[in-house]
Every structure is written in C-alpha cells, then in structure tokens.
Backbone:
C-alpha cells in the first residue's frame, strides 16, 4: 500500500514537472523570440577589450542575470541518462534559455541607457548548490555583462 | 540593473580603456566582494519551483542585489584611491557551501582626463 502511494505521488510529480515544465519552456522560448526581435538592432560584440572603439565617447557597465532551475521531469530524465552517458538534451535547452535570457536583460539594460552597441561581452555560469548535492535538481545562475557605448 | 548609477561620476567599463578619454594614471587593482546566504523563505519557494522548473525570481533578485553591493564596494575602494574610472571589470561567482555564494568583482582603478 505504501509502495503504491509512493508510486502514485511519483507519477503525479513527474506529470506535473513534464506538463507544467514544458508549457513554461514553450512560453519562455516564444517570449525570447519576441524580445530578441525587438532588440535586434543593438549589436553585441565579444571583442572590444583591446580594440579601440573610436566612434564612442561614453561608456557604462551593463549587466543581465538570471537564475534558472530544472523541473522534476528533467531532473529524472537527466539522472537516467547519467547512467548510460550521452547528451542530456533536457539540460541543453535549460542552459540555452538561461543564456538567451541573461543576454536579453543585458541588452534591455543597455537600450534603457540609449547605447549604440555593447562591446566586450562576457558570459559566466555558476552553479548554485542545490538542496541535494549531486543528484538533486539543478539551479544555475547565468550572467552576461559588457560595456555599453554611445 | 545599471551598476553605474550608485557610484555617481565613476565610469565603469569592461574595456581596457575609457572611450573618449585618455588614461593618465593607473592606481592598481580594486575589488569588492560579498558573501550571501540563501533566505529560508526564498529557499522554500525555490524548492517548490524546482518541481516545475523555470526562473527562480527570488534568487535572481538576491544575487543581483548582492552583485550591486559588491560593485559598490569596489567603487568605494576606487574612490578612496582617487580614481575616477574603473576599467577591465570582471565578475566571478563561487558557491562556498550548499547555502552560500560569494560574488566577487574586480577591476583596475585609473584616473582619466
């Protein structure tokens, strides 16, 4: 009886993670596409640290960051893939979302400052230790920063 | 979050120069850091959010606030040294234990024209 209850709860959580998680993901990707289209005119470059930027005479630091977490379903699938090895596609989309979101927030910050472009952009990823060290759900902070010039 | 605002006139860039200005003096490395522990209430909310995934807004805000503080400390350090700009800024994050993270910012303090 206890085992049955456990299995039922597990299936409910897995279903919740799968349905709500994929709906959130779909919505997030749609939102990212919209905002990327709106901010497409602001160029962002990862060069600029050593190259002199001649046409600029004002500069400001711009930062965008996001903490993103996997869902119950993704965590479960990932823990199985880790047994056999191979690509963990469920986490690839998670990191892609995080990175695009961080870059967008940085761009929006730069647009608010009326920047013409953002140079020397750096991306940084840090894992925030989850409640359960290795096998637990992952939470990742992604930060994008650069120098806005005008 | 424009990290520029709290420090007033201080120019912050990730470049090795300040666009439109000439560097007259290097004043050395400046740094600012802060160690933050997770908030219990936010942690519980994050635990629930971990079931369905997505952005953990509480943590995003917590870390943004911490990074702003670290940047401010770096700016104060630079002002104490008599700088009016900090160049080549880099951010670093390290998670110390399960519940705490260190946010670290460093750069080079300079005087520009």
Residues:
């Amino acid at each position: 009886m206890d085992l049955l209850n456990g299995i039922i709860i597990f299936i409910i959580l897995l279903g919740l993670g799968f349905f709500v998680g994929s709906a959130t993901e779909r919505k997030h990707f749609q939102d990212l596409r919209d905002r990327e289209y709106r901010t497409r005119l602001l160029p962002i470059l990862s060069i600029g640290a050593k190259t002199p930027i001649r046409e600029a005479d004002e500069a400001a630091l711009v930062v965008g960051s996001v903490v993103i977490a996997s869902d119950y379903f993704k965590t479960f699938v990932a823990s199985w893939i880790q047994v056999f090895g191979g690509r963990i596609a469920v986490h690839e989309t998670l990191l892609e979302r995080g990175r695009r979101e961080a870059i967008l927030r940085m761009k929006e910050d730069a647009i608010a400052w009326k920047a013409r472009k953002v140079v020397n952009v750096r991306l940084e990823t840090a894992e925030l230790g989850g409640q359960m060290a290795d096998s637990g759900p992952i939470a990742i902070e992604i930060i994008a920063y650069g120098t806005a010039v005008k | 979050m424009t990290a520029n605002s709290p420090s007033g006139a201080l120019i912050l860039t990730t470049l090795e120069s300040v666009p439109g200005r000439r560097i007259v003096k290097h004043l050395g490395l400046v740094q600012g850091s802060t160690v933050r522990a997770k908030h219990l209430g936010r942690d519980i909310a994050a635990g629930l959010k971990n079931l369905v995934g997505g952005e953990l807004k509480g943590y995003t805000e917590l870390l943004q606030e911490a990074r702003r503080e670290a940047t401010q400390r770096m700016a104060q350090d630079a002002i104490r040294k008599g700088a009016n700009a900090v160049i080549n800024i880099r951010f670093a994050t390290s998670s110390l234990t399960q519940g705490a993270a260190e946010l670290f910012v460093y750069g080079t303090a300079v005087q520009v024209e």
Remarks:
- The radius of gyration of chain A is 20 Å.
- Residues 2-38 of chain A form the longest helix (37 residues).
- The domain at 2-149 of chain A is CATH 3.30.110.70 (Translation Initiation Factor IF3).
